[in-house]
Design a protein that fits this description.
This protein is an alpha+beta fold and 362 residues long. InterPro entries: Bacteriocin_Proc_Enz (IPR052544), Nitroreductase (IPR029479), Nitroreductase-like (IPR000415), SagB-type_dehydrogenase (IPR020051).
Length: 362
């Protein structure tokens, strides 16, 4: 029988030894060092018996039994197994994460829920829910947001991703309104053992609201150009650096013009500890992705209601953006780039440079 090691096995070292993740199963098995050597020899199609050549009779018998068990587990394969297209493109690590992040037990309506919550709360205080930069120069934003009087159906059907902007500046009231609805708490709720929780327009896993916003301002009335952190606690901009030029942001966004040709750019990050403190399983890694998307859509809808054109992208070099923002990339990392400005043509049903397809294309 010819066998081959399954392509893309993921291994990990645990205190009890080396473990291999079973393909598409939320399970790991320990592989002793001797068997790991046999697996190493099975990178190409090989007769199963040949893998035990050179071993003593007793050892060979044990190794043969173990190898056949690995065939049963899918670690060794006996015929060519075609890797699904997505995992060919995304790789073995993504496949392993997808498997390990499935079917987490959230203990909903379970008698264990209260005990689990109490254990988390007893494990130490949660990370701060707000991030501030003490000593930074502050630009206070208007406390009263602009009224959003566009009918909701008009806002929903008008929301488009814009890529061409006029040179007109955005007003301070417009910027303050966007940030208020997209990133500020609207009220606070009693989270029980988890402490006070924020209620924002955007949904957030467990009310943790791990998303932070950093603004590169180019053309906002009453705000000097620069890189700012938005403080939802103060509803204010905290100045971090003055070199927030369009040219610099172009370098951080692969020169996607819409990333830096509006009136301002928002880099959002995730403060991972806010989530990890409450959600302690691999599936929670998905949650900041959902939350970043919720924030991005709220941002786009508020911009649309104000007559601004929103833009969003995830195409940026993470490490360079994080270095520019002054975050470590581990505890806090870049997740989404948002931008907005006055559209070049606000009276069109489509953004500039787009057209409706003809009937044949549809």
């Amino acid at each position: 029988m010819k066998v081959r090691r399954l392509e893309g096995l993921v291994c990990r070292w645990q205190p009890e030894g080396l473990q291999v993740g079973l393909p598409d199963r939320h399970q790991w098995v320990r592989v002793p060092p001797a068997l790991f050597g046999l697996l190493d020899r099975a990178g190409e199609w090989t007769d199963l018996d040949a893998l035990t050549d050179g071993l003593g009779p007793d050892t060979a018998a044990q190794a043969d039994a173990a190898l056949r068990k690995m065939v049963d587990l899918g670690i060794l394969v006996t015929e060519e197994i075609e890797t699904p297209v997505l995992w060919r493109y995304w790789g073995a690590v993504a496949r392993r994460f997808h498997t390990d992040a499935r079917d987490a037990n959230y203990l909903v309506d379970s008698p264990e829920r209260d005990a689990e919550a109490s254990a988390i709360a007893a494990d130490g205080a949660p990370p701060p829910v707000f991030k501030d930069y003490p000593g930074a120069r502050v630009v206070m934003l208007p406390r009263a947001p602009l009224p959003l009087r566009e009918p909701v159906e008009s806002v929903l059907t008008s929301r488009r991703t814009h890529r061409r902007f006029s040179a007109d500046p955005v007003s301070l009231d417009q910027l303050g309104t966007v940030l208020f609805y997209a990133f500020a708490p609207q009220r606070f709720l009693d989270g029980g053992v988890f402490g006070p929780q924020q209620a924002r327009v955007s949904a957030s896993a467990g009310g943790r609201h791990e998303v932070e916003a950093y603004l590169a301002v180019y053309a906002v009335e009453g705000v000097a150009p620069g890189l700012y952190h938005y403080s939802p606690r103060l509803h204010a901009l905290e100045l971090l650096r003055t070199d927030a030029t369009r040219e610099r942001v172009a370098e951080l966004s692969y020169h996607q013009e819409a990333s830096y040709q509006g009136a301002f750019t928002v880099f959002t990050t995730a403060v991972a500890g806010r989530l990890a403190w409450k959600y302690r399983h691999p599936r929670a890694y998905r949650l900041w992705m959902y939350d970043a998307g919720h924030y991005g859509q709220t941002f786009a809808l508020v911009c649309t209601a104000l007559g601004l054109g929103p833009f969003q992208t995830v195409a940026f070099p993470d490490t360079e953006v994080e270095r520019y923002l002054g975050v470590d990339g581990e505890q806090e990392f870049a997740v989404y780039l948002l931008g907005a400005g006055v559209p070049e043509r606000a009276d069109l049903a489509l953004p500039v440079d787009f057209a409706f397809p003809g009937p044949a294309a549809v």
